[in-house]
Write a structure and sequence with these properties.
Layout: E1 2-11, E2 14-24, E3 29-33, H1 40-47, E4 55-60, E5 63-66, H2 72-80, E6 82-85, H3 97-108, H4 113-126, H5 142-154, E7 160-164, H6 172-188, E8 192-196, H7 200-206, E9 209-214, E10 217-222, H8 224-229, H9 234-239
Helix pairs in contact: 3-4, 3-5, 4-5, 5-6
């Protein structure tokens, strides 16, 4: 469903991604872990072409692009297959909650406004915020804003949702409400999810696959049990704390 081959990204002389190969099946949930500054967020941004890879190919649901021969049409088609949930919510402050969710449907997908409104309300109910439809983002908590961001991502029915540390900007008491929503979505298996996170317990509970990255490379990948408990890779073991995690 998602295939990355030899993805590289350089900023001048700095190599941020150094030959990433990765495959995810349809409906699979994968968590990317690893030290800060190792290229995890850059990888997500390359997948939906917010950053153009220096080299490599990206394939989503049979549609493939080569980073060295990208056309504007390629970018549009690939982005239609993805949605991204950012660390800082990225909601339009001058739009209501309902309008924020409707925008990708009316502007990108050209849906009828009434149809978009109905679908947006369905999503608001899904994330438990139907009563906030006419609120502006400034009136919402960080957790509520992130749940709206997730609803907006779902609005375009993407093949894959990319979560870039979705709880990193939240106060500790708000983290669980966002994690619980993502957990519910993962149980539905309606779309593939790739999640950059530092929440190890969450990764253990939710992911079908965990990917450990360091210095722009995939060091190891496997099931949560394999990677968090039985890894034979010294670098992986030294970067993961095992003592506070219990097998479900």
């Amino acid at each position: 469903m998602l295939k990355l081959k030899n993805i590289k990204k350089q900023f001048g002389d700095l190599t941020v991604l150094d030959g990433i190969d990765l495959e995810l099946k349809k409906g699979e949930v994968a968590a990317i872990i690893g030290p800060s500054g190792t290229g995890k967020s850059t990888l997500l941004r390359c997948i939906n072409l917010l950053e153009t890879p220096t080299e490599g190919t990206i394939e989503i649901d049979g549609f493939s692009v080569d980073s060295k021969n990208l056309s504007p049409k390629d970018c549009i088609e690939l982005r239609k297959k993805t949605a991204m949930v950012f660390q800082n919510y990225s909601l339009f402050k001058n739009k209501t909650v309902l309008e924020n969710i409707m925008m990708p449907m009316t502007l990108v997908q050209k849906k009828d406004k009434k149809v978009a409104e109905e679908e947006a309300m369905t999503l608001l109910k899904k994330v438990g915020l139907a009563d906030k439809r006419d609120y502006y983002p400034s009136r919402l908590s960080g957790g509520q804003q992130q749940r709206i961001g997730i609803a907006r991502a779902l609005a375009v029915h993407p093949d894959i949702i990319l979560f870039d540390e979705p709880t990193s900007s939240l106060d500790p008491e708000l983290v669980n409400e966002v994690l619980e929503l993502i957990r519910e979505l993962s149980n539905e298996h309606e779309c593939t999810m790739l999640i950059v996170t530092h929440e190890m317990r969450f990764a253990l509970e939710i992911a079908d696959k965990i990917i450990f990255m360091e210095k722009g490379k995939v060091v190891e990948e496997g099931s949560p049990k394999e990677l968090l408990y039985n890894s034979t890779n010294e670098r992986t073991r030294s970067s993961v704390s095992y003592t506070h995690l219990t097998l479900p």
